[in-house]
């Protein structure tokens, strides 16, 4: 049509064809050939490597997790991108918001993996996610007063009972102070108020809860010595025949007072006084490791989807939206029945692109998942690496996994090419 000679066209296309052959065609062909040989490539095994893939538990887990990634991650990212693109059109600071949401795209997968490995740390003092979770939890649920504290077994009448509690072996009576010495207080929970060595005032059963430890040593175990500290806020229950008849909390000086009906009862310190503090969610445990990593992927790619969808939204005829509003449609109806159908081609592009992308996901899983749960978060691309280079040394199985990944991507690519061809014909 242009009058260009064939050899000229071939000459200009030759560099691209050479690169395409060297970087795409040759690796695909070699992978298919290598997948038919054993680990070291010396013996022909046919389809045995493919059979091993579908009988190995780790590879089956990788297939399952890859399917979860393909089904969940692209859909969430696309929906979030659509919501962000539509909502940011209605605010004056929409451009700044888009910049902030798109900014994670400038971060490499390696850096994002390191960031989220720290975000998901179990220790609330290090992991942001658990810092937030524990803050919300502690705002509604009272934490234990003295985690891991325990009675002084040598001198105390308190003995371990059910539910992490401690109960006296003998009964208490009015007029005889009950002494409840504890030890094992964490350094950051050490009290500062001296314990009251005098008999607590008030009628009924009285007593003192204190830290039976004197800085520098000395003193008599089981007795309140000068300088020993009071334990404030400890719940004390009076129990008769397995029923709690009264309860009280120790004051600032460690003393408590129970009513007369506690006479003849046993004293119990409930386990809630000593329970370990709430440390949040095990984000990288076997159950949540895959959703947690998908969350980091959504953080990275939501900006990509938002920018593409916003570009498509900018080309939507506003007259159609206004016509729908004039006809009485509310904003939700306009969004669902007008905006989304008009954006359908863009949404398909974003969805297909992300589906291809998540099939190759490797970096985030390899970096974020700790070694004990890496098998639970395994995906096909990671299994390919582990089988070939990560200690497995089986290049035959690794090549077979690569071929399977290619076969999984091909249908998605075929759908995308058909869509592009139809749009070109329009």
Question: In words, what does this structure look like?
Answer:
It is a single chain. This protein is an alpha+beta fold. It has two domains: 34-126 and 283-425, Orthogonal Bundle (MetI-like fold), CATH 1.10.3720.10; 150-273, no CATH class. The protein has helices at 6-34, 48-53, 57-87, 94-102, 109-119, 128-140, 289-314, 318-326, 331-342, 344-359, 363-368, 380-388, 395-425; strands spanning 150-151, 158-160, 166-168, 178-183, 205-211, 235-240, 243-249, 255-258, 266-269. The strands form two sheets. A five-stranded antiparallel sheet has the order 2-3-9-6-7, with no helix packed on it. The longest helix has 31 residues, at 57-87. The model has no long low-confidence stretch (mean pLDDT 86). Residues 63-416 form the ABC transmembrane type-1 domain. It is found in: Cell membrane. Keywords: Cell membrane, Membrane, Transmembrane, Transmembrane helix, Transport.
Low-confidence regions: none
Strand order of the largest sheet: 2-3-9-6-7
Order of helices and strands: HHHHHHEEEEEEEEEHHHHHHH
Estimate percent helicity: 40-55%
Protein name: Multiple sugar ABC transporter permease protein
Keywords: Cell membrane, Membrane, Transmembrane, Transmembrane helix, Transport
InterPro entries: Ig-like_fold (IPR013783), MetI-like (IPR000515), MetI-like_sf (IPR035906), UgpAE/MalFG_permease (IPR050809)
GO cellular component, one term: plasma membrane
Write the layout of secondary structure elements.
Layout (H helix, E strand, L loop, with lengths): L5 H29 L13 H6 L3 H31 L6 H9 L6 H11 L8 H13 L9 E2 L6 E3 L5 E3 L9 E6 L21 E7 L23 E6 L2 E7 L5 E4 L7 E4 L19 H26 L3 H9 L4 H12 L1 H16 L3 H6 L11 H9 L6 H31 L1
Parallel strand pairs: 4-5
Antiparallel strand pairs: 1-4, 2-3, 3-9, 5-8, 6-7, 6-9
Helix pairs in contact: 1-13, 3-7, 3-10, 3-12, 4-7, 8-9, 10-13, 12-13
